[in-house]
From TrEMBL:
Residues 217-401 form the SGNH hydrolase-type esterase domain. It comes from the Bacteria. This is Lysophospholipase L1. Keywords: Signal. InterPro entries: GDSL_Rv0518-like, SGNH_hydro, SGNH_hydro_sf.
Amino acid sequence: MRRFVAVSAAVLAGIGLLTTPGSANPGSAHSRSAVPVLPQHAIGGWVGTWAAAPASAVPNTPDGYPGYSIRNVVHTSAGGGRARVHLSNAFGAAPLTFGHVTVAVQGTGPDAVPGTLRSLTFGGAPSVVVPAGAEALSDPVNLRIPADANLLVTTFVPAKSGPVTHHPAAAQTSYFTRNGDFAASESGAPYTEQTSVWHYVSGVDVQGGAEASIVTLGDSITDGVGSTSGANRRWPDYLADRLHGRFGVLNAGISANRLLLDVPGSGAGQNALSRFDRDVLSVGGVRTIIVLEGINDIQQTPHQTDPDAITSAYRQLVAQAHARGIRVIGGTLTPFKGWRVYDDTLEATRQAVNAFIRTGGVFDGVVDFDAAVRDPADPLRMLPAYDSGDHLHPGDAGYERMAAAVRLDRL
């Protein structure tokens, strides 16, 4: 595990004394608790360790992937002694049959660590039919799940199923074969083809380790666009490293996602308000949400230049989360000067939205991502050392800096 930040005994005890430039002041109005602080979840309950929000159907898959075994590689944030898996047909158009599903700890590439592969059941049955628009949750299996490790979640679909639900910006290599059911193969030898997206799998829960889950809701910056593929260097990954398995950290980012509008045909998923219940409120053991979303409403066409429309969406997200007893931390929108559509009008909207996040009193805390990554010599631009090169998405160093800006005691 990358241990870039030394965690003191106070942090491990839950006090969280680390501060960073630009982080919220615990005594300020915008970092007060708007909901009662909940008691800690008893260790032993189900907690999400990994998630990927379903984004869209794979284009041009009217028959689905009949006869395919797909070995998805996913990365844990927290460990435990039991596991269960979420599968999605959210963007399907017909019932989907999973004929065989397994989970294992990854060895090398598509190989499973010997002795760790488990076949999953669904209500005791070895297969499950998932209606169009629905999801399925497996029965638990006993399996020692390490924190900060890769798992293999393999699905076999025996028949034509219609469009395939997927998460396109995985920043991770997974594997597949078109040659039948190899879900139970510990050897990766049958998996001769590769894919850079996640198919069907939307979450993994663990039991017996972490206290609760933190969900990061966002767009491509949360999804990790611009980070090194296969290295787990998205800012939620760096945050998970700082927490050392105490909390699960779940990534609900979708590249190109917006707060207010769907973007048909783009793979950008449903707007954040539409998908909030499925991707955030309903996941295992969620205690806190970090919201970093809105820059696409501003910079994508049609441009949203009324900051009140964006801040109204924030109010709704917070109200719905508070109704479930969940805390919400607002993340300021990061600089984008130099991005291809940047202009003064769009920048003025970003500044107004960030002023609301910092001082509006709606969120339970603030992470000032803007202050964390901006260039002191030109505050409207991202510091070059943090920029992936496109002036909108951070690179690895920028994502690490963003995670370091999160106050652990606000979680």
